[in-house]
């Protein structure tokens, strides 16, 4: 998957709710790792948005800026 030279915001969702986000610089290759200190059974999903121009108002999650919406990944938490 190729993202064009634009900074991006990665939003992680946990069971449909906001979990965390982080910003990526404009770069041709990135590795994304989503960790959870309190895992529970359910699903995680990532959304990637182009960053708005500085000074523009918005949450960073506007549909017009969407670059990629990933399918959910289902997990089962185990105690070990």
Structure description:
This protein is mostly beta strands and 80 residues long. The protein has one domain (8-75). 0% of the residues lie in helices and 39% in strands. A hairpin with a 2-residue loop joins strand 1 (8-14) and strand 2 (17-24). The mean pLDDT is 80.
Low-confidence stretches: none
- Average pLDDT works out at 80
Order of helices and strands: EEEEE
Tally of extended strands? 5
Cα-atom radius of gyration: 14 Å
Q: How many helical stretches?
A: 0
| Overall tally of structural domains | 1
Beta-strand portion reads: 35-45%
Q: Distance between the terminal alpha carbons, to the nearest Å?
A: 36 Å
Q: Please outline the major beta sheet.
A: 5 strands, antiparallel
Secondary-structure class: mainly beta
Overall morphology: elongated
Q: What percentage of residues falls in helices of 4 or more residues?
A: under 10%
């Amino acid at each position: 998957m190729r993202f064009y030279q634009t900074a991006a915001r990665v939003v992680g969702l946990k069971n449909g709710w906001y979990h965390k986000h982080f910003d990526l610089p404009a770069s041709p290759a990135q590795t994304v790792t989503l960790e959870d200190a309190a895992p529970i059974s359910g699903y995680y999903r990532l959304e990637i948005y182009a960053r708005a121009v500085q000074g523009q108002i918005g949450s960073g999650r506007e549909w017009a800026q969407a670059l990629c919406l990933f399918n959910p990944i289902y997990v089962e938490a185990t105690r070990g």
